[in-house]
Amino acid sequence: MDLGSGRDTNSYYDYLARWILLEGNRLLLTGGVVLGFFLLTLFLVSYGIISVGPQSPIQSILGSGVVAGLFSLISVTLAINQLISSRVFGSLDQLQGKLEGGSDLRDTVSEIADHPSPPIRIANFISFVGETMQEQAECLPNDHDFRDDAIQEQIQSYSSDLTAYAETVQQISGEMPAEKVIATLAGPDFAHHLNQTDELRSKQHENLTKEEREILDTIADLLGLITIFRQYYKTIALHQELAQLSRQFIFVGLPAVIAALLAPLLYKTNSPVALTSYPHELVIVITLAIVITPLVMLMAYMLRIATIFRYTVSVAPFVPPIEWPWSE
Question: Where are the membrane-spanning stretches (predicted)?
């Protein structure tokens, strides 16, 4: 489903969808879902719709099923840590290759911009690339007697569109949340501009000066760098997101396991429960809310990660298969 198809992206529905799927605080979202589950369960128990008494299956659910499920989630956490570690470790040759590759790309932009020291923060560097691309685009629309007005208008339109895109890229900064940076760079704009650059270079080759052809070559290189660093930034940001999930899962997973192990001990064989009815029901409902927290947290984080992957899966010059629904 394309959330942006035929919809007003400024509507309350789309704002809420964007907050839940992308921009919302994951801990706040987790807390809201858990609180809703707690209130719903308490309502159902209070009115006798569901039972947590001695004759209910709650003991076996908490004592075996929930504990087994929590340990399965622990396995998921270990797999996440293994995924993150696979990108951190490497041989000397591999690490040196990454260093040289990053340095070469940085030097390329430095040479184009005639700036000796581009920013070292990834988001600020992407903004610097956008600034350099805008400077190149503004050098294009020069009037020449040897070409007609239609071609000149095409070049002017191309320059204006590219400048607008470059200004959007320049809005990125290291102070922005990672998901905001990804949202700013998402969408097919980079691929469209790269395609327009190739068309202008090939179809209007004879109507362009040598300087203009060189500028278009530079712009194509900068657009390619933007998509490379977009994917690189996304990779780093999502690995940090997974690392944060792994860490927070430990903090909520341990209390959940302890609660699931201790709650069945409130029940005594062939006798009423250890606590009176109302406190007992409240304790069990609280326990259920605690044990479901790790699963809700995992789903909240995976929802954002899956949303980003769904809409930013391709690399230039190809357009993503599904258009980003929240264009800036």
Answer: 27-49, 61-80, 249-267, 282-303
> Distance (Å, rounded) from C-alpha 168 to C-alpha 145?
33
Please compute, for residue 200, the number of CA atoms within 13 A of its CA located in the half-sphere on the CB side: 29
- Rounded CA separation 181/230 (Å): 9
- Predicted pLDDT at 242: 86
Instruction: Give the largest Cα separation in the chain, rounded.
Output: 101
Q: Which residues fall within 8 angstroms of residue 32, CB to CB, at 6 or more apart?
A: none
Cβ within 8 Å of residue 109, ≥6 positions away? 118, 125, 128, 129, 132, 222, 225
User: pLDDT per residue over 86-113, tens digit each?
Assistant: 766 667 777 777 778 778 888 888 888 8
Q: List the domain boundaries for the chain.
A: 12-311
DSSP 8-state class, residue 22: I
**pTM of the full predicted structure?**
0.79
d(CA 188, CA 196): 12
Q: How far apart are the first and last CA of the chain?
A: 20
Buried b (16+ CB within 10 A) or exposed e, 18-30: bebbbebebeebb
Could you tell me the two tokens for 32? 């809201």
pLDDT at 75 over 90: no
CB atoms within 10 A of CB 47: 8
**Integer CA distances (angstroms), 305 to 26, 64, 239, 308, in order:** 11, 31, 10, 5
Phi/psi-derived region of residue 267, left when phi > 0, alpha when psi is between -120 and 50, beta in every other case = beta
- Give the sign of the dihedral formed by CA 38, CA 44, CA 48, CA 51: negative
Count helices and strands (H / E) in the chain: 11, 0
Number of C-alpha atoms within 13 angstroms, CB side, residue 151? 17
106-121 burial code (b ≥16 CB/10 A, e <16): bebbeebbeeeebbee
